[in-house]
Design a protein that fits this description.
Layout lengths: L3 H9 L6 H11 L7 H11 L5 H13 L4 E5 L2 E5 L5 E6 L5 E5 L3 H12 L9 E4 L14 H4 L9
Parallel strand pairs: 3-5
Antiparallel strand pairs: 1-2, 3-4
Helix pairs in contact: 2-3, 2-4, 3-4
The structure holds zinc ion (ZN) (2 copies).
């Protein structure tokens, strides 16, 4: 389901809400799997058997450029995110799934950065990597605590 607000916003920007475009937006927003264009294509094809991957890809990029979807590059290629609100990501290194997590502590660091460096920060991204609940060994610890304790210097960098 696409909220009416989105449809109005598309019209305001002079974009035609074509049927493929509407279905593509629907597919990406219906999943929290941060799908690739190929995944979206397979889903869209169930409803539009004659659609091409190129059409799906072009529309995904257009929707992302207009802010209706977020785009993110990772090792698997470009992925699309129906959640355009502020949030961070957790990537499971075992199953490869990308989870949304609430935007966290990086906001404070970002606010301090301009005073410390003179940089104008326009965007930032926080990525967490590890093992998700389904992939964690029962009772296992994902990090040995010793590794986190150091004499004031970051280790392993
Ligand atoms: Zn996992
Ligand atoms: Zn996300």
């Amino acid at each position: 389901m696409i909220p009416n607000k989105t449809i109005d916003a598309l019209r305001d920007r002079g974009l035609r809400l074509t049927r493929p475009r509407r279905i593509i937006l629907d597919v990406v927003r219906a999943t929290d799997a941060h799908p690739t264009a190929a995944f979206v294509y397979r889903r869209v094809r169930r409803r539009l058997p004659r659609v091409s991957l190129a059409t799906v890809y072009r529309n995904l990029q257009m929707l992302a450029a207009e802010g209706f979807l977020a785009e993110r590059a990772d090792a698997a290629g470009m992925r699309f995110d129906g959640n355009t609100g502020p949030h961070d990501h957790f990537t499971c290194l075992t199953c490869g799934r990308i989870y949304d997590v609430p935007a966290g502590a990086a906001g404070a660091a970002r606010r301090r950065l301009p005073a410390r460096t003179g940089f104008e920060v326009l965007d930032h991204r926080t990525e967490y990597y590890g093992r998700c609940g389904a992939c964690r060994p029962p009772g296992g610890r994902s990090f040995p605590t010793r590794q986190r304790r150091s004499n004031g210097k970051p280790q392993g960098l």
